[in-house]
Amino acid sequence: MTGDLAAGEPFGAELLFTDGLPAMDDEVGYRGAVAAKAAGITYRQLDYWARTELVEPTVRGASGSGSQRLYGFRDILVLKLVKRLLDTGISLQQIRTAVDQLRAAGIRDLAGTTLMSDGASVYLCTSNDEVIDLVSRGQGVFGIAVGKVLREVESELVEFEVEKLDAMDELAVRRAARTA
């Protein structure tokens, strides 16, 4: 069943961004600069999307001056998908709706999912038949194979070092070092 995300048609109850992904430790993440580079966006975009709650870091959010956001693998995948949708001309408002509904709806097999759009709405296709059905009705203008994007993010992150979440943030560590 093909769903128009803007219309909010329901999908499976499984959590999105879990199936087909490597198991990631919730205590491990990537700094903002690394997340931005892996997603192909600027740090300014990353910061704006975090502040406007489009894509927030799940490992550690900013908690004041000197603290570093840490983004998980799934966060970076969402960032890259948002970038791809923006590059195709989808409005940020429509992308925000799609991201919210994708997270709420969930998908069983993320690697086999394709995001399709007609330039105005975003559709979620979980099988080849759904893609063909959408295109045959003249609705699909372009598609983004999520599995391909997932593998791109994996290969981008191989060269970067992950950060382990500490009990103290960076500012607290600097203060402790100054007083010692």
Keywords:
alpha+beta, three-stranded antiparallel beta sheet, elongated, disordered N terminus
Secondary-structure map with pairings?
Elements: E1 3-4, E2 28-31, H1 32-39, H2 43-51, E3 70-71, H3 73-87, H4 92-105, E4 114-117, E5 122-125, H5 128-136, E6 142-145, H6 146-157, E7 163-164, H7 170-179
Antiparallel strand pairs: 1-5, 2-3, 2-7, 4-5, 4-6
Structure description:
The chain has 180 residues and is of the alpha+beta class. It has seven helices and seven strands. It has a four-stranded antiparallel β-sheet, sandwiched between helices. The protein has a three-stranded antiparallel β-sheet with strand order 3-2-7. A hairpin with a 4-residue loop joins β4 and β5 (122-125). α1 (32-39) crosses α2 (43-51) and α1 (32-39) crosses α3 (73-87). The longest helix is centred in the middle third of the chain and has 15 residues, at 73-87. The protein is elongated.
Mean pLDDT: 75
The strands making up the biggest β-sheet line up spatially as 1-5-4-6
Largest sheet: 4 strands, antiparallel
Helix amount: 40-55%
Percent range for β-strand residues: 5-15%
Specify the number of helices.
7
Q: Supply Rg.
A: 18 Å
What's the multimeric state?
single chain
SSE arrangement, N to C: EEHHEHHEEHEHEH
Task: Compute the number of strand runs.
Answer: 7
* Secondary-structure content class: alpha+beta
From the spread of the alpha carbons, the general shape counts as elongated
The termini sit apart by: 62 Å
Question: Regions with pLDDT < 50 over 5+ consecutive residues?
Answer: 1-23
